[in-house]
Amino acid sequence: MIQQRANFDWMLKQLNDGVPGIEMIVVLSADGLRIARYGGDPDAADRVAAACAGMQSLAGAIIQEIPGAGDMKLVVIEIDGGYFYLMNAGANAYLAVLADVTCEPGRMSGMMRDLVVRIGAHLTSPPRRNGQTV
């Protein structure tokens, strides 16, 4: 597992403090490994990261059916009791957020986008083959 990078703490805290209702923030690699998290249980963050890898893969398959579509930018799922957000955050990296019903979806997606723009170069994960960085 990739160790959480210390400089992610303040970046993710800033998002958490800027939007009410956030339960957990996870930064993950495209292959579903947790890079960093803020809030929530570490085991839950690992499960979310693994599930997000499947979600971004599914979004990519759907995009293939839309002529001229680019990459997946944002997936939002409204569930009973809250929202799930998954945003492309750089080369081979994604930003996922779980939030309760007090979260305002427009504000959340805007704050996530701002975070990715400001620190996108830091939210990347090198490609791996057979568990090793290539």
Across the major sheet, the strand order is 2-1-5-4-3
Number of self-contained structural domains? 1
Biggest sheet: strands, sense, closure? 5 strands, antiparallel
How many strand units?
7
Strand content: 25-35%
Anisotropy-based shape: globular
- SSE class: alpha+beta
Tell me the radius of gyration.
14 Å
pLDDT averaged over residues:
85
Architecture in CATH? 2-Layer Sandwich
Distance between the termini: 16 Å
**Helical content band:** 25-40%
The CATH superfamily appears as Dynein light chain 2a, cytoplasmic
* Low-confidence sequence ranges: none
**Topology pattern, helix = H, strand = E:** HEEHEEEHEE
Key phrases:
134 residues; alpha+beta; 7 strands; Roadblock/LAMTOR2 domain-containing protein
In short:
This protein is of the alpha+beta class and 134 residues long. The protein is built from three helices and seven strands; from the N terminus they run H-E-E-H-E-E-E-H-E-E.
Structure, explained:
This is Roadblock/LAMTOR2 domain-containing protein. InterPro entries: Mycobact_SerProt_Inhib_Rv3364c, Roadblock/LAMTOR2_dom. Pfam families: Robl_LC7 (PF03259). There is one protein chain. The protein has 134 residues and is an alpha+beta fold. The protein has one domain: 2-Layer Sandwich (Beta-Lactamase), CATH 3.30.450. It is 36% helix and 30% strand. The chain contains three helices and seven strands; from the N terminus they run αββαβββαββ. The strands form two sheets. Strands 2-1-5-4-3 form a five-stranded antiparallel beta sheet, with helices on both faces. It has a two-stranded antiparallel ribbon with strand order 6-7. A hairpin with a 4-residue loop joins strand 1 and strand 2. Helix 1 runs antiparallel to helix 3. The model has no long low-confidence stretch (mean pLDDT 85).
